[in-house]
Amino acid sequence: MNQQSAVKVLFASAEAAPLAKIGGLGDVAGALPPALRQNSAGKLDIRLFLPFHAEIKRKEPQLGYLGAFSVPYRAGTFSVELYVTMVQGVRTYLLDSDVFNHHSPVYHGDPGLDGRKYASFSVALLEASRFLDWRFDILHANDWHTALAVYALKTLYKNDPFFKETRSILTIHNLPYNGYGSESAMTELGFPAGTDPDLPEWALLTPLPLGISAADRIVSVSPNYTREIQTRDFGCGLHEYLQKNNQKLSGILNGIDTKVWDPARDPLIPYPFDSTAISGKALNKAALQRELNLEENPEIPLLTVVSRFDYQKGIGLIFDAIPENVRKSWQMVLLGTGAPDLEARAADLIREYPHKIVSLLKYDEVMAHKLYAAGDIFIMPSLYEPCGLSQMIAMRYGNIPVARATGGLQDSIINYHADPDNATGFLFTEKTYEGLVSALNSAILVYRDKPTWAKLMQNAMRADFSWNASAQNYLELYRDLINQRGN
Ligand code: ADP
Asked: To pair with 120 at 20 to 30 A between CA atoms, which of 23, 335, 352, 416?
């Protein structure tokens, strides 16, 4: 790659921080493109393509209007307006259309509506590149939402000279979310059903498996999850396909944006601190205890949860663990939204244990930062976890994770019981609340041993969770694809 022939990458995502973020995909799409740019020494022209969500409009970013273009579908065309803005040095295109955007949330939660939104966005982003006359080399799609852009290159645009040299990568952030329910939208847009004989029948009109089958390379977001998805337990019906095609599958651990998540410079926390000047952490804890009307006491371990309330996250295990542990001295703050029954259980806890537990049932960026900074122990008992960013953020803020040994949690946390000198957290394997209780008890015991706990915090805060190593791996992948094209 040299300056004259900078590799052009179209990075497609449903969300990207800080414009629109629902979960980890937003963190990744907000941080990876700038990290790739910085690590490529000017040899990469990476541009981000997003739907112009209502949430982004409300933020009123500085915009340039580039014009309107038409997208063909089976019964005619629909119109898309194109805007551009800059985010951390990355040219970011916002696509606006009544068909997939309008006043809708990032995700409707209704499979048919979301199918329509993202199937049409996936085709529109390819047409946007044509409108810009920007012949990109690599389409880097993410999750089911943009997987159909990959599939479109192999079907709707197969013989289109504009995309003749284009290669594709699909990163899987969460395999179970496969876009099932998009059939009618796909048919309206003229997508043919898949013909890959290795795919199961149900996958032939489902975005993620079609993208997986069409992509030149597939990446999953941690080495461990890459192994797991090739097994029946984690493969969501695609494990045999992934085993058979594992020559195009690799695992690259996500990183975090270490500028956004930096306890020494975080404007959203009251007292900055870092591993060399840790005293600010205790001040953050005291401030949060005051703010939430918990007993202001530095000796009581403060347990924290920042999570989508989804079964994936094992939130139920936390609720089940509480009665068993309730006589011990600790406080807990939960921040999250999601499944109504989990929210209801969290609300009950406040009534049952008003002096011990605070449930904040909302999405709140500022409160998330405060919890990472104030907490002693971060609970993340995920039933499965492709990578997980929250545990990395927590560690950076000296908030020690107690987590299930699965997926990226296992790749990013060094277990106290396996390697006490280098440990950064506590891992347990059982998918039961007893497993969680036992790991929590260990953590609380070690918390009382001040020098050992201080060492754990140092290890966790000094661990490198920046994007640099992963960005190098992605750049390598881009290089491989470009080189193969030449052969
Ligand atoms: P996932 O993508 O599966 O939700 P990750 O751990 O990869 O999980 O990323 C979650 C991201 O979303 C983290 O940045 C976390 O701080 C943030 N987050 C989750 N729930 C909330 C909430 N209620 N308020 C603020 N931020 C949240």
From this structure: 23
pLDDT in tens, 27-82: 999 999 999 999 999 899 999 999 999 999 999 999 999 999 999 998 899 999 99
* Burial class, 410, CB count within 10 angstroms (exposed 0-12 / middle 13-18 / buried 19+): buried
The whole domain housing 286 covers: 279-462
Ligand 1: residue of 28, 390, 406 to mutate (most ligand atoms within 8 A of CB) is 390
Residues 435, 411: one domain? yes
| Cβ of 407 below 6 Å from ligand 1 | no
Our answer on whether the CB atom of 311 is closer than 6 Å to any ligand 1 atom is no
- Ligand 1: which of 335, 389, 404, 409 to mutate, most ligand atoms within 8 Å of CB? 389
Per-residue DSSP letter, 301: -
Residue 57, classed as helix, strand or coil, is helix
Average pLDDT over residues 300-308: 97
Residues 238, 360 within the same domain: no
Nearest alpha carbon, ligand 1 atom 13: 390
> Which candidate, 371, 368, 413, 424, places its Cα nearest to that of 388?
413
Tally of domains in the chain: 2
Please check whether residue 168 lies inside any domain of the structure.
Answer: yes
Residues 350, 228 share a domain:
no
Atom 18 of ligand 1, residue of closest alpha carbon: 307
> Chain-wide mean pLDDT for the chain?
95
Residue 431 in contact with ligand 1 by CB distance below 6 A: no
Judge if pTM exceeds 0.85.
Answer: yes
Q: Reduced to 3 states, what is the DSSP secondary structure of residue 342?
A: helix
| Gap between the Cα atoms of 155 and 152, Å rounded | 5
CA separation for the pair 197, 436 (Å, rounded): 42
Going from the Cα of 200 to the center of ligand 1, the distance in angstroms, rounded, reads: 32
Identify which of 483, 480, 470, 477 has the alpha carbon closest to the alpha carbon of residue 34. 470
Say if residue 449's pLDDT is above 90: yes
**pLDDT tier at 1 (50, 70, 90 boundaries)?**
very low
Task: List Cβ neighbours of 482 (8 Å cut-off, separation of 6 or more).
Answer: 1, 7, 137, 138, 167
